[in-house]
Design brief:
This protein is of the alpha/beta class. It is built from 10 helices and 7 strands. The strands form 2 sheets. The protein has a 5-stranded parallel beta sheet with strand order 2-3-1-4-5, with helices on one face. It has a two-stranded antiparallel ribbon with strand order 6-7.
Length: 274
């Protein structure tokens, strides 16, 4: 887009944080995460599970939950990271005088997460995001309560130069100068669980409209004519929602893309919608 920006009749220059890629299912994000990592493009995915999944993060959260329970319950708490009940009480006393960031860093040492982070970039990135999210809260308990209630979009940072990757649902209420809505094909947008039958067409249409209106300057709707799914190549039909857009409002561009090398068929996975 940098080399052809004059064609967009828009003299603006954009930074990474101005871009968002939206898709219907969480499963689709994996392809973008892989491609962005390979290309060295900084990105952030609006996916709470992505923060909690890396090695060492779950034990840290579990320890935090144990320490923030009422004192009368601590004896019934499973021991964490080889710590005795006496150790747990000592830790509780220590962190109560620390801000959330310092408290999490102390606990990362007790769980061994600090050693994991030296070798695992994903764990380090996830931990630093947790520290950032915990910062505005008065204590760890309020942070953990908020973490339980947070939606995926709440895990996005708004002061970093990264492209945002979000599902259509997670994008509600957000706006970006440049938005790509990926996979505008029958079966994805609108979504059909079995690839054919759409449960609620009007709800899918509303969701697509929400996605389109996230764009402030430039909106790109992308679709593939062929796609490899579970090791098999399928012809694809572009979304009927695109057909409903007045032609005078659109500009069609075709890009030749090489199909990825076939992989061994995998067992079908359930697509996560939210």
């Amino acid at each position: 887009m940098d080399s052809r920006k004059q064609e967009f009749d828009n003299p603006k220059e954009y930074s990474f944080s101005d871009f968002a890629v939206l898709f219907r299912t969480r499963k689709q994000s994996e392809a973008f995460v892989s491609a962005f990592e390979k290309a060295g493009i900084p990105f952030q995915a609006a996916d709470k599970a992505r923060i909690l999944k890396p090695e060492g993060i779950s034990p840290l959260i579990s320890l935090c939950r144990s320490l923030t329970q009422k004192g009368g319950n601590i004896g019934a708490i499973p021991l964490q990271a080889g710590l005795s009940v006496k150790d747990m009480q000592s830790l509780r006393n220590e962190i109560q005088f620390l801000d959330n960031g310092a408290g999490l860093r102390l606990l990362s040492e007790k769980t061994g997460l600090d050693e994991i982070m030296k070798k695992n970039g994903a764990a380090k990135e996830a931990f630093e995001r947790l520290v950032s999210l915990a910062g505005p809260h008065p204590d760890l308990k309020s942070f953990l309560d908020a973490l339980d209630l947070d939606q995926d979009a709440d895990t996005l940072a708004y002061d970093v130069e990264k492209v945002s990757l979000l599902t259509l649902h997670a994008a509600k209420g957000l706006e970006f100068p440049v938005v790509f809505v990926a996979g505008c094909e029958q079966g994805l947008i609108p979504f059909a669980g079995d690839g054919e039958h759409i449960e609620d067409l009007e709800e899918e249409r509303r969701l697509f409209y929400v996605a389109m209106t996230r764009a402030m300057d430039i909106l790109c709707l992308t679709y593939a004519q062929k796609r490899r799914i579970y090791g098999r190549r399928f012809n694809r039909q572009r979304s009927l929602f695109i057909e409903d857009i007045e032609k005078r409002l659109t500009r069609l561009e075709k890009t030749a893309a090489r199909m990825p090398e076939p992989k061994k068929p995998e067992q079908p996975e359930q697509l996560e919608l939210f």
